Amino acid sequence: MKIRTVGILAAGAAIGYALNTESGREKLAQLKDAGSRFLGRPEVQAKTADLADKAKQRTGNLPHSVQNIANQTIDKAKQATSRAGHNGEAPESPSA
Fold first, then answer.
1. CA quadruple 84, 87, 90, 93: dihedral positive or negative?
2. What pLDDT is recorded for position 72?
3. Using the 8-state DSSP alphabet, how is residue 1 labeled?
């Protein structure tokens, strides 16, 4: 158990150090941009909408109170994905 705690603390310190360096912040910005471009792709948006609809259909057998919470969570996830995709630049078209 002590080894796990030390490992987690060491990993946290390494991540904190990396993000506090200029190159670490640049890499994080690049990752965020790449994620936004990916989420902004029309096929990804369509797939997330399709998965959200399927998830809502599967909540039909749940108790009413659980169904409401599940549907709210699905809606929030769908909105977050949509916002993340629209915050980035327009997706680049693949070059042939």
1. negative
2. 93
3. -
Domain ranges of the chain: 2-87
The model's pLDDT over 39-80, given as tens digits with 9 standing for 90+, comes to 888 898 889 889 999 998 888 888 999 999 999 999 998 888
Three-class secondary structure of residue 40 per DSSP: helix
Within 1-96, strands assigned E span none
Compute, in degrees rounded to 10, the torsion defined by CA atoms 69, 49, 33, 38: 140
Residue 86 has pLDDT above 80, yes or no: no
Q: Are 7 and 56 in contact (CB under 8 A)?
A: no
Q: Helix crossing, 22-40 with 42-58: angle to 10°?
A: 70
